[in-house]
Amino acid sequence: MNPRKLLRIARWEVTKNAGGVDRRTIVVGALALLTVGIAAPYAATSGVAVDSGIYRVGISEESPYYPVVESDPTFAIREPNADIGEEIDLRIQGLAIQTAPTPKAAAAQTELRSSVRAYNNRQMRQESNQSAAFPVVVSLGYVERTQVREVISTSDRQEPTPDDAGTGDGGDGSDGSDDSGGGDGTGGDTGTADGSGNDGTASGGGGENIGDVAGGAGGVGGIAGQLAGGNTSGTPADISPPFPFQSLVLAFLFVLPLNFIIQAYGSTMLSERLNRRGELLLVAPVSRFDIIGGKTLPYLTAAVGIAAVIAAALEFPAVAPVSVAISVLAVVPIALLFLAATFLGAMFARSFKELTFVTVTVTVSLTTYAFVPAIFTDVGAVALISPLTIVVRNLQGQAIGIGEFAFSLLPPLLTAGVLFGLGAGIYREEDMFTQRSIPLKALDALAARVHGKWSVAAVTAILLPFVFVTELVGVATLFAIPNALSIPTILVVVVVVEELAKSLHVYAGYAHDRFEVGLLPALVVGAFSGLGFFVGEKLTLLAQLVGLPTSVVEGQAALATGTGVPSVPLLIGLLLAPLLLHVVTAAISAVGASRNKRAYAVALVVAMAIHFAYNYTVVTISGLV
Amino acid sequence: MIEVRDLRKEYGGFTAVEGSTFSVDTGEVYGIIGPNGAGKTTTLKMLAGLLEPTAGDVSVAGHDAGTTEMRRKLGFLPEESPLYEEMTPLSYLHFFADLYDVADGVADRRIHDTLDELDLEHRDRQLGDMSKGMKRKVAIARSLINDPDVLVYDEPASGLDPLTTNYVIDFTSDLADQGKTIVFSAHNLYHVESICDRIAIMNEGRVVAQGGLEDLRAEHGETEYHVFTTVEVPGSVKENGRYRSVVDSMDGVERIRADAQDADGSVVDIRTEESSLEEVFLDLAESGAKT
Fold first, then answer.
1. Which of A16, A278, A284 is facing B96, going by the closest CB pair?
2. pLDDT digit string, tens, across residues B212-237
3. Domains of chain B (ranges, CATH numbers)
4. Of A66, A148, A549, B32, which one has the fewest beta carbons inside 10 Å?
5. CB atoms within 10 A of CB B53
6. Å from A622 to nearest chain B CA?
């Protein structure tokens, strides 16, 4: 790969459309950007303030309310002896507030109340003795749902008293939350600060309702309670655990731009193939990796740049470069995964119609993978399968371990590498510019990396990240259903994915005459594929060291070949047994692949059956089912 | 300059090129002709390194086909002109000059010289707004951006009007005069006949004949003798007060001469006509001859 050529192609990718934009459009665009550039920081720091000075208040500087009114740009200060109703909406003399008999004056009074509350909070925060300012501190901790059930079932299920719900000292509000999984406790906090107790009352009410839900709707929360006719309001505060809106919004912010970027990226990649436009680049003295890298770099840069801007904007005005860098670093694998999947799809698509299908598929599947786990950042460790969880945790100020970082980022990063590698395998004349069928292209992509038994082992090992991510997505998708159903289903998914990963490129190699035909060569090729898988699989077990799968039963079923090992002989057995399993099943598939398509299909099914039987035995011994 | 040995290309179960062997000397113009589907374009793409041969060897300018070194010395013009239509000729050519590591000053001079030679104006206009002939000229200019030793042109005048076609063929001929080694395919056999030093005729993936035009005529063509006599002889046709007989050998000429003398006449003129390249091509294509 030649970095200079790669960057030249990247520059060309950015500027090649410049000829299509006339000067007038450029001027208008520049002016628009300039306007936004000037207006945005001002709006961000000062607000739009369309309501500036809307309420007129007659007040003297001696009044204790004067600093409040002065600090709120909504109010316009007038002389206190002005004509109320005509010249002013409110008159404040000392502590007495006189309101004009108009709807606008009533609104002004409400605004004044809010301003006083905000002013008091600011004053409190400036106190040097924070314990005096905030004598009650509420710490929230979420527990797993099963433990919630235990807590509820073992408690006397005493209904909250009206005092609990209504006294509003904040601490009660949060208690309601903890005991029943309801209420977010915010009211308690606010109630303390305000001294009014109103919000605390509301939150306590939420806690009261959740008691019904926990008993009647299996702890699914307020929405289920509402569906079951429970006495809940249906607001997010009713959901148990509290619905992570902040995580949702943060994850959404970061994943949304990627969906737009891949549209442009997929389009430019496919346009290279239509009308043979990219043919001359293939003749030029540049490698296909230069071309792919050069064409991808601008879109990756855009994705990273947007992520950086969003991260910085979320932290504005106290932007911490390290924090922004962590968020950006975590977005890179996701962006690469989006781009890699789109690239591979664009290499397979034969028209823009098919490309639309590809991009929609990529959008839905990868957004689900990245977005959904990140929403539940605070709920379960499985959320770490998405790098966006790292972003959300980072922006929420939570610490992130190196192991968690690696666990979350490496699989999508390596998967992106595999997808780019497969796409690069068919970035050639024969596959780019012909209406070759998708299965044949898939075989071409795989066969491009297969040249001998060692390369078979390497490709199998390289496919492991893809296998790993697929299995984890399966775990994340199925972990919510009962174990009795989810574990066999997971096992089927695992068996299908793993056996395909071990054999498909072997079949592709045979289809391209890369191997010697015969029983013994097929057994050797299959054995090497099994060996490659074994090595790769052991590497994935490192993922368990960061603690995710051990906390999820389905994770153990998918990734482990045995847990809770009681003795050394069994440990050795469990180490060697997977090697034997993978070698045997891969050899069976390879023998079938060496014959023809039908023989391969039959052999693959046999290999899957053996693999399933093995896995089921392991998880049964482990006591998972 | 170009060595091709036992070249074979298969697509799935279909063999597009089978056992092609030929060589092209430095400065030579080598034409490849054949009916549609004969394997001409596939052969040229393997020469350009675009397609990987299923079997056989291709060497261009001392380098294996497809290597970076070989690409630096090659200019390839595909049958169609797949340009980036949102670009201008200048930006397009400068981009490829960068990819070929042509220094900016050299590239600038070469681009303008070539476009001047090709008589291409409107160099700041988008390629998408240009005529097919103008696009073809830009494509030719791109193939010359690296001042290659070897040019591989696939149907360089395909789809162009007669005026532009002649311009392109003359330009190609000028390149040959400058010492470039050129391999090109064409459907118009007149163009091949007019500028090629040697010719390969392909049919059904095989090179069925190759050599100089005279050699091909001698080996695969026919020479006809048109004998004009003052009297009628067997098989003759009256034409402008004389009698014309057509034979394919000197023995036939002697026989007519004897017949004319027997009838108290004489032979007044003998003309020879040789097969055109088109006739040789059609004959080989129809007979499916194998080398």
1. A284
2. 877 777 777 677 788 999 999 998 99
3. 2-218 (3.40.50.300), 224-274 (no CATH)
4. A66
5. 21
6. 49
